């Protein structure tokens, strides 16, 4: 950011950004160069026009260029080189190129879209038309090649053929002129060409432009100088400018307002003159241009002269009151300080002290002429006129200059500045303040000021003997000097208390100030403190201003000096200006809405989706330097602080309609504010259809809740019924189980009782069987005895035979009775055993019955009237018949049958 000045001429700069009625003749206007790489290597620029909003358009080899002061944009229309253009308003652009001409209009995406208007691309095979002239007159566009002039109006195209061959075309005032290389100069009127003058016999020259001087038409030729038209004939103007233009070869021409002319030449760069032929500026490579060959010139409404060169593009700010003197030849170096005395300009630089006649700083020569004063080689920090003596502060000491001769007052290094205190001079240097006293006509060293050390590069002495000292990287000191120049009542204000960098001390009618690159601090005498101003201070500015200790200073009432890199700058304070703002507008360039995943561009009044609620809005004052911006979002909110940043970011905006108002300041001059509106759409969950859905959902939820409650109630009733039924079933089951249990217990009891009875009956039966067996055994014994008696002879034999038959009958009856009873008791068992094991005998079946009712072997042996061992054998034989495994229990087996 630019440095500040300690001098009163700061107020003059508030009128700096207005178009001057007259240009300063000292130095080169603010010049900015662009090399081809900066604009995409699009080739040479042949024509330049500016839109009403300040954006500049250029016809280049490889298409149409657009420049807003920060960004270059290129568009490709026709295939051939673009040769000429004309802009109407802000959105309608006509261009001419090789074998084509057409119109550009702004498309829906805010990009320029080209439409060709040339109808003969396919038909004309033997003619190569190059359209070097494109114009717009009233309501029709005109395109000019060497062979034809085309008029485009209301969608209709009319062609006029050249009398012989058109060599050039240009406008003057509201008229369009064309030149025929053999016939002369014509003016275009309606749909016809009217001859202004014919070339004299044997004279033929190419015309580059026209202007009027005292109602006389003046003609500018390429290499024949200037002519005036008298009685329909060209008459050569014989002056220095005309001769100079003959040598320089004019290639391009334009007017600068109503009073100045600009000539772009092939050999010697750019000339700016008044209409009387006085050269105001001669600008070439020695003075900053990239090339001495000027192909095209355009003077915008904003006061800028655009220059298309054989190499690169340049723009000069003709409305700026600060002009520049650069040392591209290595003649003097970087200017630190300067002084005007007796029309001699003294320049202190990093190389020494130079001088030049003040009139030689006029910019009408090829280069500037400076001479080094002998003995001054080195760095010159100060050059001051004090009591009509020139004091030079050098890195080698303090000197007095008289008649280009030096007298050294002190060998102490580095004198920065000086101020007077009665008969004393105070000089700030590398190490404190040196005090010199006046003895007659001589100045002699007196002493070093006490209590103040360091590099004192700024001293300000107030009338009440208060001394202010600025020491870089330390702070500001306020001291009250007594009669002996002792700094009593010293107060130190550390540099850290001043926000920003490059603290600069200044004084005006409002008191003492400290200016940084961010704020201004003003000393409050009553409170004894510095108070910060919230508003930024409008500061004088010069491009390339040296930082830190190098400060602007006034030369005299008309000019001020600025130290810059590789030269110096001069501000013309007395330049007459008017305050009309023309051609300077604030425009909105882009609205970008984005989130972490995507971004999109919108126009003003757009509705932006809610998920893209982070905005980046870019605005610009096209092609203006030192612009400050501030904004406010919605009326009633506070304005932001002034900033050089022309891109504003708004994060996480809520849905709703917004109004963004932006205003700009170009070096203290306010530009009319501009406003755009936009809307952040409500999220889908805030939209009207979402509200309807919410209402329907609430109704549905209420219905579902009631339905759910009803369903739950029914389920609960059903569940309770089922539970009750289940309880009843469980209770019935328990009752059934209890009944079954009781029945089983009863049956079990009966079964046990039956078993007991069976066992008892079986035992009884077995007992009876035993008794029968004993009886039968007795009877058998008796029978045997009877047999023996029968065999005896006698009559008793018959009786014995009857007895014998009776006993046999009783034996058979008893045996059958036992079998019948056993079968009745164990009928089911015997059936199952006989079915499964048909080989079982009656004794086996009887043994099975005994075993099933639980008789042991001894009891079975007694019942069968056998030995217990025989009982065991019978059991073993039975196991085999039953095919039992050794581990199977015979008792369990029989009980399972």
CATH class of the largest domain: Mainly Beta
Q: For the report, how would you describe the main beta sheet?
A: 8 strands, antiparallel
The helix-and-strand class reads alpha+beta
Q: How would you state the average pLDDT, rounded?
A: 86
Distance between the termini: 120 Å
Give a description of the structure.
This protein is an alpha+beta fold. The chain has 6 domains: 34-161, Methylamine Dehydrogenase, Chain H, CATH 2.130.10; 239-319, Thrombin, subunit H, CATH 2.40.10; 335-572, YVTN repeat-like/Quinoprotein amine dehydrogenase (Methylamine Dehydrogenase, Chain H); 594-686, Immunoglobulins (Immunoglobulin-like); 691-825; 826-897, Arc Repressor Mutant, subunit A, CATH 1.10.10.10. Helix content is 22%, strand content 39%. It contains 8 helices and 60 strands. The protein is elongated and about 210 Å long. Residues 1-20 have low confidence and may be disordered.
Keywords:
897 residues, alpha+beta, Methylamine Dehydrogenase, Chain H, Thrombin, subunit H, 6 domains, 8-stranded antiparallel β-sheet, 4-stranded antiparallel β-sheet, 8 helices, 60 strands, 22% helix, elongated, disordered N terminus
Describe the secondary-structure layout.
Layout: E1 28-34, E2 45-50, E3 56-60, E4 63-67, E5 72-75, E6 82-88, E7 92-97, E8 100-106, E9 112-116, E10 133-137, E11 140-144, E12 148-153, E13 156-161, E14 166-172, E15 175-180, E16 184-189, E17 192-198, E18 207-213, E19 216-221, E20 226-230, E21 233-236, H1 240-248, E22 250-256, E23 260-265, E24 270-274, E25 279-283, E26 294-299, E27 304-309, E28 313-317, E29 322-326, E30 335-341, E31 344-349, E32 353-357, E33 371-372, E34 380-386, E35 389-394, E36 397-402, E37 405-410, E38 415-421, E39 424-429, E40 432-439, E41 442-448, E42 458-461, E43 466-471, E44 475-481, E45 487-494, E46 504-508, E47 511-515, E48 520-524, E49 529-533, E50 553-554, E51 559-564, E52 567-572, E53 587-594, E54 599-602, E55 607-608, E56 614-620, E57 627-633, E58 647-650, E59 656-666, E60 669-680, H2 688-790, H3 796-825, H4 827-836, H5 842-852, H6 857-864, H7 868-882, H8 890-896
Parallel strand pairs: 55-60
Antiparallel strand pairs: 1-28, 1-29, 2-3, 3-4, 4-5, 6-7, 7-8, 8-9, 10-11, 11-12, 12-13, 14-15, 15-16, 16-17, 18-19, 19-20, 20-21, 22-23, 23-24, 24-25, 26-27, 27-28, 29-52, 30-31, 31-32, 32-33, 34-35, 35-36, 36-37, 38-39, 39-40, 40-41, 42-43, 43-44, 44-45, 46-47, 47-48, 48-49, 50-51, 51-52, ...
């Amino acid at each position: 950011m630019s440095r500040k000045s300690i001098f009163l001429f700061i107020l003059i700069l508030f009128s700096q950004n207005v178009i001057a009625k007259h240009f300063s003749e000292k130095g080169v206007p603010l010049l900015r160069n662009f090399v081809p790489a900066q604009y995409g290597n699009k080739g040479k620029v042949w024509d330049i026009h500016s839109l009403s909003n300040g954006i500049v358009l250029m016809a280049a080899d490889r298409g149409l260029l657009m420049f807003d002061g920060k960004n270059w944009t290129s568009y490709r229309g026709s295939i051939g080189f673009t040769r000429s253009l004309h802009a109407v308003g802000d959105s309608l652009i006509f261009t001419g190129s090789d074998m084509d001409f057409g119109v550009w209009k702004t498309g829906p995406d805010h990009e320029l879209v080209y439409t060709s208007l040339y109808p003969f691309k396919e038909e004309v095979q033997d003619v190569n038309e190059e359209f070097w002239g494109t114009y717009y007159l009233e309501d029709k566009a005109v395109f000019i090649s060497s062979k034809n002039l085309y008029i485009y109006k209301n969608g209709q195209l009319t062609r006029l053929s050249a009398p012989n061959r058109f060599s050039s075309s240009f406008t003057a005032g509201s008229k369009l002129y064309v030149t025929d290389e053999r016939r002369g100069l014509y003016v275009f009127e309606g749909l016809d060409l009217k001859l202004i003058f014919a070339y004299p016999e044997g004279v033929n020259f190419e015309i580059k432009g026209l202007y009027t001087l005292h109602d006389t038409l003046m003609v500018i030729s390429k290499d024949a100088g200037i002519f005036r038209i008298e009685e329909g004939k060209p008459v050569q103007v014989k002056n220095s400018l005309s001769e100079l233009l003959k040598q320089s070869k004019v290639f391009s021409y334009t007017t600068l307002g109503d009073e100045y002319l600009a000539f772009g030449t092939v050999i010697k760069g750019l000339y700016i003159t008044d209409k009387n032929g006085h050269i105001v500026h001669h600008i070439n490579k020695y003075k900053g241009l990239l090339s001495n060959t000027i192909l095209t010139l355009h003077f915008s409404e904003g006061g800028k002269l655009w220059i298309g060169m054989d190499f690169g593009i340049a723009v000069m700010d003709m409305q700026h009151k600060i002009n520049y003197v650069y040392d591209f030849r290595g003649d003097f170096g970087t200017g630190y300080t300067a002084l005007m005395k007796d029309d001699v300009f003294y320049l202190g630089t990093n190389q020494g002290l130079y001088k030049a006649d003040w009139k030689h700083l006029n910019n009408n020569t090829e280069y500037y002429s400076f001479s080094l004063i002998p003995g001054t080689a080195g760095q010159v920090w100060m050059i001051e006129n004090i009591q009509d003596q020139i004091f030079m502060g050098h890195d080698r000491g303090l000197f007095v200059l008289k008649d280009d001769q030096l007298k050294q007052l002190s060998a102490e290094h580095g004198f920065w500045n000086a101020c007077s205190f009665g008969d004393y001079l105070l000089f700030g240097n590398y190490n404190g303040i040196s005090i010199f006293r006046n003895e007659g006509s001589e100045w002699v060293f007196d002493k070093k000021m006490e209590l103040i050390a360091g590099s004192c590069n700024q001293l300000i002495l107030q009338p009440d003997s208060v001394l202010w000292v600025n020491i870089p990287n330390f702070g500001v000191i306020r001291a009250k000097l007594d009669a002996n120049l002792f700094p009593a009542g010293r107060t130190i204000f550390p540099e850290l208390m001043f926000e920003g960098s490059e603290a600069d001390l200044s004084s005006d009618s409002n008191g003492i100030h400290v200016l940084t690159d961010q704020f201004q601090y003003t000393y409050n005498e009553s409170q004894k403190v510095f108070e910060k101003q919230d508003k930024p201070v409008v500061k004088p500015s010069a491009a390339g201003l040296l930082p830190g200790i190098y400060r602007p200073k006034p030369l005299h009432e008309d000019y001020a000096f600025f130290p810059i890199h590789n030269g110096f700058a001069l501000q013309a304070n007395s330049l007459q200006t008017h305050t009309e703002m023309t051609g300077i507008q604030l425009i909105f360039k882009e609205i970008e809405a984005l989130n972490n995943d995507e971004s999109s561009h919108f126009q003003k009044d757009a509705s932006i989706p809610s998920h893209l609620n982070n905005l980046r809005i870019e605005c610009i004052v096209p092609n203006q330097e030192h612009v400050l911006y501030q904004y406010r979002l919605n009326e009633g909110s506070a304005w932001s602080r002034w900033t050089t940043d022309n891109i504003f970011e708004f994060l996480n905006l809520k849905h709703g309609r917004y109004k963004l108002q932006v205003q700009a300041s170009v070096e203290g001059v306010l530009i009319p504010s501009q406003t755009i509106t936009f809307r952040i759409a409500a999220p889908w969950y805030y939209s009207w259809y979402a509200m309807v859905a919410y209402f329907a959902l609430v109704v549905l939820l209420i219905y579902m809740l009631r339905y759910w409650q009803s369903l739950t109630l029914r389920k609960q009733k059903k569940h309770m019924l089922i539970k009750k039924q289940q309880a009843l079933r469980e209770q019935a089951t328990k009752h059934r189980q209890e009944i079954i249990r009781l029945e089983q217990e009863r049956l079990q009891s009966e079964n046990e009782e039956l078993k007991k009875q069976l066992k008892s009956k079986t035992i009884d039966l077995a007992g009876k069987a035993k008794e029968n067996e004993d009886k039968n055994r007795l009877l058998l014994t008796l029978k045997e005895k009877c047999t023996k008696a029968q065999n005896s002879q006698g009559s008793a034999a018959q009786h014995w035979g009857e007895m014998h038959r009776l006993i046999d009958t009783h034996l058979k009856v008893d045996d059958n009775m036992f079998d019948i009873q056993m079968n009745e008791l164990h009928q089911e068992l015997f059936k199952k055993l006989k079915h499964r094991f048909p080989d079982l005998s009656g004794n086996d079946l009887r043994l099975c019955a005994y075993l099933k009712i639980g008789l042991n072997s001894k009891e079975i042996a007694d019942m069968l009237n056998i030995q217990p061992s025989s009982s065991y054998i019978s059991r073993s034989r039975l196991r085999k018949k039953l095919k039992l495994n050794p581990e199977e229990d015979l008792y369990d087996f029989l009980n399972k049958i």
